[in-house]
């Protein structure tokens, strides 16, 4: 008579742990590959802000995609003045540097949108250029969860364009 061997529970546990580890590595790898273009754009924007925009320090990055794409870098000038550098993402990389004190702050632009539109969630608030003017673009979800945009003039906060219920 033959004796039936039992599978060791340690072996089953080890196989399950290896499978979980493979899944974690696959998810992490996928996320890393998906984020690479944004990290490369940020690296490029920081170096352009320092070289073309003459920024001394860089502290923040965002991207604006309107009629043209812009990298927006927050930092300080060589004279320690807080500034924004708007870098056109085309091959020439035209750079516009503006003082943060020369216009409406991000907080004030957001308060304007909150008071007029009462969004359920603000998705993004970034600087950019619209019709040659520096603007705040506020992307948000309204109470019906529809995507909306507000474009506010940077210099005075006046509304240039509203796109509701996309």
Unreliable stretches, pLDDT < 50, 5 or more residues?
Answer: none
Radius of gyration: 24 Å
Bin the strand percentage.
Answer: 35-45%
Distance between the termini: 74 Å
Compute the number of structural domains. 2
Q: Give the neighbour order of strands across the main sheet.
A: 1-2-3-4
The top-level CATH class of the largest domain is Alpha Beta
Count of helical regions: 2
Give a quick account of the main beta sheet: strands, pairing sense, barrel closure.
Answer: 4 strands, antiparallel
- Tally the beta strands: 8
- CATH fold description of the largest domain: Nuclear Transport Factor 2, Chain: A
**Roughly what is the average pLDDT, rounded to an integer?**
91
| Helical/strand content category | alpha+beta
> What does the overall shape look like?
elongated
Characterization of the model:
With 166 residues, the protein is an alpha+beta fold. 33% of the residues lie in helices and 38% in strands. The chain folds into two domains: 29-101, Roll (Nuclear Transport Factor 2, Chain: A); 106-163, Roll (Nuclear Transport Factor 2, Chain: A). The chain is elongated, with a radius of gyration of 24 Å. The protein has helices at 9-51, 106-117; strands at 55-65, 69-77, 82-88, 95-99, 121-130, 133-141, 147-153, 159-163. The model has no long low-confidence stretch (mean pLDDT 91). It has a four-stranded antiparallel sheet with strand order 1-2-3-4, covered by helices on one side. The chain has a four-stranded antiparallel sheet with strand order 5-6-7-8, with helices on one face. The longest helix is centred in the first third of the chain and has 43 residues, at 9-51.
